[in-house]
Each structure stands twice: as C-alpha cells, then as structure tokens.
Amino acid sequence: MHPSEDLFAKIKLLIADVDGVMTSGDICITDEGKEIKTFNVQDGFGIRLLLVNKIDFAVITSRSCQAVDLRMKYLGVKHVFQGAKDKLPVFKSLLNDLKIEAHEVAYIGDDWPDLPVLCQVGLPIAVANAVPEVKARALYTTDCVGGAGAVREVVMHILRAKNLYESALANFIYSKEK
Hints:
Blueprint (H helix, E strand, L loop, with lengths): L4 H5 L3 E4 L11 E2 L5 E2 L4 H12 L3 E5 L5 H10 L3 E3 L5 H12 L6 E5 L5 H4 L4 E4 L5 H6 L2 E2 L8 H12 L3 H9 L5
Helix pairs in contact: 2-7
C-alpha cells in the first residue's frame, strides 16, 4: 500500500528504530563481548539529505550500543535515544521538545516494540522484512529490507513530496560546474 504524497509532504520528523531498520537486525558479538553493527551508506546519506533540508531525524531503540552513538554523531543526528524499553514516553517527550504534532511524524519500524509509536504517528512505515503485525498497522511498507536502503527509500519519498528532490539532486549534478 502506498499513502498519498500529502502524508509524506507533511513530515517534519522521521524517526527510525535501529536493529532491523537501520541495520539488518543481525547482532554480531565478538569474543570480547563487543557488539558490531553494520549500517547502510545510502541510508546514512539519505539522513544527511533530510537534515540539510531542515527535516529532523531521530532514532529510538530499545537496545544500547556505542556504534549507534558513533554513527549518529558522524551523520549529525542530534536526537538519539537508546535503551528505550518503552518507546512511547520518549516519543512524546521528543514531540514536546521539537514542538511538533504526531501527524507530522513518520516512524519506521520492524517489530512489536515499535507498535506503540507506530500507532501514534501520521505516517507509520514498516520495512519490507517487518513482522506481520507491524505491516498490518503501516500505511507504507518499503520495498527495501531493513539495513539495505529502507531509510533512504523513505527519505526519497519525503523529499519528492516536499518538492526538494530535484534541488537536492541538482546540487550534486552541477557541483562540478560551479
């Protein structure tokens, strides 16, 4: 199912879960007990495109990992919430801090812990490999699986709906000619 472009155009904040959305969901732990995550570079570039175009991005995840802090810091993401076993209070606090309404938010999730927030936002989104209960409540399901471009896919929809896509692309096509 694909929601109207109007829903994407209203988005002022995109929130994503981490494991299963920004990563494949695999958890790799070294013999030393360090957790390793891999992030998709195109997702990261999409997040940067959002931020450059004055659209906020946040992560809310129930797990905690230094790799998430490092990756989000590198991308310039200011709203990083780890260890959120109950994501709804974090979500409500973030809305209050940013002074935006729930209908102006898109949330990308993949599993049951995402449902409380998914049921509150204006644009609930499931990644292609989300569990059926999440897909059933999503207005949009990505073609890409989590960790393989799903975030970038959503970003492109938002930029197109807000008529920002062509100017963002032009900055790269014509940057060598300037």
